[in-house]
Structure formats: C-alpha cells, structure tokens
Design a protein that fits this description.
The protein is an alpha/beta fold. Strands 1, 4, 7, 8, 11, 12, 13, 14, 18 and 19 form a 10-stranded mixed beta sheet that branches. A 6-stranded parallel beta sheet has the order 22-21-20-23-24-25, with helices on both faces. Helices cover 49% and strands 14% of the residues. It contains 35 helices and 25 strands. α7 crosses α35, α23 packs across α34 and α25 packs across α32. It has 3 domains: 95 residues, no CATH class; 367 residues, Rossmann fold, CATH 3.40.50.2000; 292 residues, Rossmann fold. The mean pLDDT is 96. Bound molecules: ligand NBY. Ligand NBY binds next to α7.
Length: 799
C-alpha cells in the first residue's frame, strides 16, 4: 500500500486553488457560480481547504501504518474545538489564497467566515484543554487519536431576558458540517441493561455507534491527526413498520428516538439532576465504541495481547471515561478469554488519568443500583477490582479501617455509590493534576490515602494553551510585532523563545507599538472606549471563581463615583463573559445581578467616560478569540485552593494582559514566570483559606468592619440591583462559602494599585511585554512534552 505516490498533489498557486474551488462548487456542492449562496461559498471553501489537509492525512496514516508506533489515545467526553476555517486555512498554508478565490465567486472573506459555526462540544476549560492538547500532539508529530461524542446539540446558546440567562439549543450542524468525514463502515455495537448468565453478559438493549472524524492538523509539519466522534444510531429494525402503517407514528420511531438520544446533547456540567442515567449511558457509549476501535486499530499490525500496553496508552480526561477500565477488563476476560490477572496487569499498564478538580462535590459517583441495572457485568468487575484493592490496603495498612473506608471504590453512606475517581486511580499507572499547586493538593488532600499506598503513581502536568489559535490567529497584529521583535516565526513552534522579548520592554518605540496593537484589538472588539482599561473576567460562572467578588468591586467603584469621585481611579470597561449551568441557581443570580449593575451604571451620567460594564451573551471560543487580545487586566480571583489550574489566565497573560489574582491554580506558576513585580497578587493563600474555612468564619465581621464593603452589600440587600442582587447579598452575609468578604479589602486595595500603575502607561506597557515574554512555558506543546516524558512515552513519527 503506497499512499505516498498514489496521490495527485493539490496545487498551491492562486490559479490552482481557484480552479479547485470552482470544481468543488460544481462537482461536490452541485451548484454554479451564478446561483451560489454565501453558504455554498463557505462549504466549498471548506472542502477545498480540507482536501489539502486530507492529502496530508493520507500521508500521515501511511507513515503510521508503516511504523506501527506507540499510540496516544485521548478519551474525553468534551472537545471545545473552536471555529475551524481560519485555523485550517493557516495550517494548510492557504490563508492568502482564499480571499481572491472567494472573490471569483462574488463573496467577501468576512461574510464567508461568519458562517463558520464552532462545534461547541464542551463546557469550559476541560473541553478546551482537550482541543489544545490535540493541536500540540499533531504539531509534535505524535501518533494520536482523540475520541469523543458527536453531540447533536453542543453547549447551549446563552441569551439574556430581563438580565436573566436563558438557554437555547445549539443546533450546530443545522447546515451540515463540511469539516467532518463520516466513517459509517467503522460502526460499533454497544449493549446496555440485560443480565449476566452462565455465558456472560446478555444485554437487553443494543445501540450502534457511528463514527465520523475531524482532521487535526499540526502547525509547521505535515502531520494531520484525527478526532473521532461517535454518534448513536438505532440498531436495525427499530423502525416499526406495522405500527407506522397503523398510524402510530410516534410509537413507530420510539425505539430509534430512544437510541439516538444518547448522543443528543452535551450535559452542561453536573449541576443538573436531569437525565442522570442518560449521562451514564453516554459515558459507556463513548468508552465502549472507542475501546473497540482502539483494539481494531491495534490488530492491523499486532497480534499478541502482551504488546497492547507497549503500543497503546489511553489518557482519561477526568473521570467521565472511567468505565473504560471495567470495559477493557470485560473485553479481555469475557471476549478474549484472558485470565483475570493478565488482563488486570494489561489494563493497569494502559490507562492514565487526569484529574481536573479539587471540589469534593465534583468527584463523580454513580448509584450502585443504577450502574448495576445499566451495566450488570461491569458492576461485578468493579466489585472484584474493589475486593483486590481492599486486600492490598489491609495488607499495607493492617487494622486501618478508615483507610479501607476512604479507598474503597464503593461509598456506603448515605447511599451505595461507585466512586469513579477511586476507580480511575486504581486502574491506571499514572494520575496527574493540572498545575503544581493542584497536584500537591491532590496528594495531600483528595487522594492522600492513595498517595500513601502508591506514591509513585502521582505526578503533575501543568496545563498549557496553543499559541497558534490564541496568539497567531486571535491576535495577528501582536503576532507580527512579536515575530519582528524576535526576528523569526519560530516562537510559534517553540514558545520559550518569547523570553527574547524581555529586553524590548526597555525600548520606548517597541512599547509604543505594543500599546498601539492593544488599542487596535480594543477598537476591533468595539465594546467601550479603547482608551479605558479593559478589565475582563471570562470563564464559566461558579461561586468558587468569585464573579461575586468582581461585582462587589464594580459596585464600590460606582459608589465612589457618587460619593468620593477622588477615589475612583481610572476609566475602566469591565467585561464579563461566561455561562452558568442551567440548574445552578446561585450562579444564575450572579449573572442577573451583573446585568442589573451594568444597567444602573449605564443609566447614570456620572459614569460616563469613566465606568462601563459589558456582558456580551454566549461567551464561547469564537468570542474568546476577540476578547483576549483586547484585554488589559485579567481577573483570576478564585478562592485559593479551588481552581485546579485555569487556562484563560494563560491565554490572557500571553496576549499581554496583566493578572490580578490569588495564589491559586496556575496563577502561582504564572507569577513565578512573569515576575512578582508584574503580577497583582492579593488575598488569602490556600493554607490560610483552608484554615479560615475550617474555623469559625464570620462574614458579618468583615461587613461590619469595612465601610465600603458595607455600602456595597447594603445596596445589594436593599434591592438596588434587584431581587437577584438581594439573593447574592444574602448568600455572602450568610455562609459565604468561598470567603469573598474575607478577601474583599485586599482585592479592592490591589485594584487601586492597578489603577495607579495604569496611569503610568509606559510602566504598564513594560509589564505587559514582560507578561508575554514570561509566558512561554504555558504552551500546550510544553504540556504535551511533559505528558510524553512523564506518562505517555511515545515518539514522533513524521510523514
Ligand atoms: O479544567 C477545569 C478546571 O476548573 C480548570 O481549573 C482547569 O484549568 C481546566 C483544565 O484542566 N474543569 C472543567 O472545565 N470542568 C468541566 O468543564 C466539567 C465538565 C463536566 C463535569 C464537571 C466539570 N461533569 O461533572 O460532568
């Protein structure tokens, strides 16, 4: 099989590109220049670009086949891929060819690009991290496949009605998806329910998984990997013709609808009670389809099971795909007839697990009853794994009942539930946290007993972000300036080179150009006065992230405008962006309060030219790419010890925003690298927060002791910002779970320092350049290199 010589090369001249575009318009889109719509132009351009990547894909696949390499498989319930067109133009080297070719069809690049819908197949940081890692894996030429679910509906579209978040379905494939390759012949069968008889598991329901894939090109290399997404389909014969003929139309398709519901919608995190069993079905569906596909691929070039962990490493992106552990046991023991010990040894050499949280309530558990009904054989397997685990615990720590209780895969009270994190730690060879502090806290708190049992299993891999999407594509102006400053574009593949910008921070003309790029980005964003400081807080809404602290700051600024204008500071546009889980009532109250404060500020002539609050709806990757280049100040103000890492903090620092933040997650490492002088630190650190939280914390004492805090909370309590604002105040004056009031004064004073520094624009710009220069570490290329060295141990294969 020689794919290398068999392919007609696709041209790279403007004429050849235009020719290909036209022929795709005629032969694949089936229309003509005269009647082409903007959508036709978009889809045709996408196909023309995709073809170029597909040719590279074929060469990559051929090189992989020849090499029979070790593979990295990334299993994730979420991928927040972001818009594809601009990226694929850049990676395929056709960015400059597209505009002229489109013009031949009579369309502008802008109107065509606006039709590129982002696949929102994730919630937040976890899903976006998965996308950044895939980008870097391809860029580093690592043989890798990402596996996920092709949700019909991605993360909901956020709208505001009367300032309140309302959720609308995200029908992202309404017009089809030109980037996708269906691969229906690789379909898999997945069973659910049923019973375990003498012959093994007999499922009571069968569903098909149909894959399609998107291309994942590397930057500056020929490698093109794939992300394979599964869609649920009814097994054949689920259409009931007899009922249909009898006019029972709904009943006739009932089975098909039930099956297809499995990949119908991405769950907007875990705050919703709705459809728990369906969510568990999704997880098993992903895992079962993907493992069979991985085994199918293993068998192309291998036959001996003992080679499986040599050729395969499977990374579990949080606990959502943890059922892969008992599923692989089932496949090996029940279907491949390996003995239990050998199977367990293979499994434990194959999987690794990334934990993304520190919130105890975010550790996933499933009721034993539900799991046993849906997956009876898997529950048996989990019980046996647990029995052996607990034997090991008793042997290592005799007479230590509390360890047995903590480490057990089964939680007993108040209801028997399977602890997915414990299963993930037990069935893998490495467990990593996502920032230094997070990994330390995992081994000292959440997984302390596991770390005592298996100390070598735990490691850290600090998150990173792709500089291609979040600097080069999002911020072309700044990218060009960086390239000029460094004398080459090599920084896009080796971000540590950014340190070469540091000396330029002392160059006044470079600073002036740096400032002007920021202003350009702000003007392009079109929200607020480009002369004002753009102060941004963009992330999911969660009480631990403390958007409520930011809103207290805004209220304080607003009140100073009324009563102490001399203390106000500098003109600011405060920008919020983010979604709340639909069932997370407290987070939705914070959203509504922000919109009420924004309206009050806007209605008051005293704020004019000084303070503005903007909250564009439906924050997503597309919007992030517009906001991040424009930001001056990055708000990373979570309660210390709660944010596992953060990745928005990295994107903002890379684009020259200064951070105001607590010593939480990756903020700690950002501050180390950009320098403490170039970072606005405030608040309790993790040990202090923990000890205050576990002692007798009295939020009211802060309220009583601080006039500005009291005034801000009183305004909220008195309903100045509506009923939602009253709820926010009540929660802060009641329990204040995340120590907002304890950190208020330190935060406000630090914000006053921020304003003072802003008044010295030369100093600010210097700090901004040093933030970019110090952020080279936060490339996802470095993250992938760390995974390779500490966990994956796979080598590059170049096509
Ligand atoms: O993962 C985030 C962390 O909060 C952030 O600190 C970190 O930088 C990022 C990448 O490591 N976690 C996150 O985004 N989590 C989710 O989106 C999520 C999704 C689903 C569920 C829970 C959390 N769930 O329960 O299904």
């Amino acid at each position: 099989m020689d794919l290398r010589n068999g392919l007609r090369p696709l041209g790279s001249t403007p004429a050849e590109f235009e020719q290909d575009l036209l022929s795709n318009l005629y032969y694949r889109r089936g229309t003509t220049v005269e009647s082409a719509s903007a959508q036709d132009a978009y889809e045709t351009l996408a196909l023309t670009v995709r073809d170029r990547l597909a040719a590279r894909r074929a060469r990559t696949a051929a090189a992989h086949y020849e090499t029979n390499p070790r593979w990295v498989y990334y299993l994730s319930a979420e991928y927040l891929l972001g818009p594809q067109l601009e990226q694929n133009l850049l990676y395929s080297g056709t960015t400059d060819l597209a505009p002229a070719a489109l013009k031949a069809l009579g369309f502008s690049p802008e109107e065509v690009e606006a039709l590129d819908v982002e696949p929102g197949l994730g919630n937040g940081g976890l899903g976006r991290l998965a996308a950044c890692l895939l980008d870097s894996l391809a860029t580093l030429d690592i043989p890798a496949v990402g596996y996920g679910i092709r949700y019909d509906l991605g993360i909901f579209k956020q709208d505001f009605e009367n300032g309140e978040q309302v959720e609308k379905p995200d029908d992202w494939t309404f017009q089809g998806d030109p980037w996708e390759f269906p691969a229906p012949d690789d379909w898999q069968t997945v069973g659910f329910y049923g019973y375990v008889g003498p012959e093994g598991w007999v499922p009571g329901e069968i569903v098909h998984g149909e894959p399609s894939h998107l291309l994942v090109p590397g930057y500056g290399t020929e490698t093109v990997n794939i992300v394979r997404l599964w869609r649920a389909r009814a097994a054949q014969a689920s259409f009931d013709l007899r009922r249909f003929s009898a006019g029972q139309y709904a009943e006739a398709v009932q089975e098909a609808v039930k099956a297809e519901n499995i990949s119908k919608v991405l769950y907007p995190d875990d705050s919703t009670e709705m459809g728990r069993e369906l969510r568990l079905k999704q997880q098993y569906f992903l895992v079962s389809c993907s493992l069979r596909d991985i085994i199918r691929r293993f068998r192309f070039r291998n036959s001996d099971w003992s080679d499986f962990p040599v050729k395969t490493v499977i990374q579990l992106n949080d606990t959502h795909p943890t059922l892969a552990i008992p599923e692989l046991m089932r496949l090996l023991v029940d279907e491949e007839k390996l003995d239990w010990e050998q199977a367990w040894s293979l499994v434990r050499q194959t999987f690794a697990y990334t934990c993304h949280t520190l919130l105890p309530e975010a550790l996933e558990t499933w009721p034993v009853d539900m799991l046993g009904r849906l997956l009876p054989r898997h529950l048996e397997i989990i019980y046996r794994i647990n029995a052996e685990l607990l034997d090991e615990v008793r042997a290592t720590f005799p007479d230590d009942l509390s360890r047995v209780r903590n480490l057990s895969l089964i939680q007993e009270e108040p209801q028997r539930r399977v602890r997915m994190a414990n299963l993930a730690v037990t069935g893998t060879f490495k467990v990593n946290g996502v920032a230094e502090l997070h990994s330390q806290l995992l081994t000292s708190t959440t997984f302390a007993d596991f770390a005592a049992l298996w100390p070598d299993k735990f490691t850290n891999v600090t998150n990173g972000v792709t500089p291609r999407r979040f600097v080069r594509l999002a911020n072309p102006g700044l990218s060009a300036l960086i390239t000029e400053g460094l004398g080459s574009e090599d920084w896009l593949r080796d971000l540590s080179l950014l340190s070469g910008l540091a000396p330029l921070a002392d160059d006044a003309s470079f600073r002036a150009r740096w400032r002007s790029e920021k202003r350009h980005a702000k003007s392009a964003l079109g929200l607020g006065d480009p002369g004002a400081m753009l102060d941004v807080m963009i992330k999911r809404f969660h009480e631990y992230k403390r958007q409520q602290l930011k809103i207290l700051h805004v209220i304080t600024l607003y009140q100073r405008l009324q009563s102490a204008p001399g203390r106000f500071g500098v003109p600011r546009t405060v920008l919020f962006g983010g979604k709340a889980a639909p069932a997370y009532y407290a987070a939705k109250s914070i959203i509504k309060t922000i919109n009420a404060v924004a309206a009050a500020v806007a209605a008051d002539p005293k704020s004019s030219g000084l303070l503005r609050v903007v909250f564009p709806a439906n924050y997503n990757v597309t919007l992030a790419e517009k906001i991040i280049p424009a930001a001056d100040l990055s708000e990373q103000i979570s309660m210390a010890g709660k944010e596992a890492s953060g990745t928005g903090n990295m994107k903002l620092a890379l684009n020259g925003a200064l951070t105001i933040g607590t010593l939480d997650g990756a903020n700690v490492e950002i501050r180390d690298r950009v320098g403490a002088d170039n970072f606005f630190l405030f608040g309790l650190d993790a040990p202090a927060a923990l000890s205050l939280r576990s002692g007798d914390y009295q939020p009211r004492s802060y309220y009583e002791a601080d006039d500005e805090l009291r005034a801000a909370l009183d305004a909220l309590s008195n309903g100045v910002f509506g009923g939602a604002g009253q709820e926010v105040a009540q929660s802060l004056l009641g329990r204040d779970e995340y120590l907002t009031l304890a950190d208020y004064r330190s935060y406000i004073d630090k914000q006053d320092e921020v304003a003072a520094v802003w008044q010295n624009q030369e100093r600010w710009t210097r700090m901004s350049i040093l933030n970019t220069a110090g952020s080279g570490f936060f490339s996802s290329d470095r993250t992938v290199s760390d995974y390779l060295e500490r966990i994956w141990r796979a080598s590059p294969v170049r096509p």
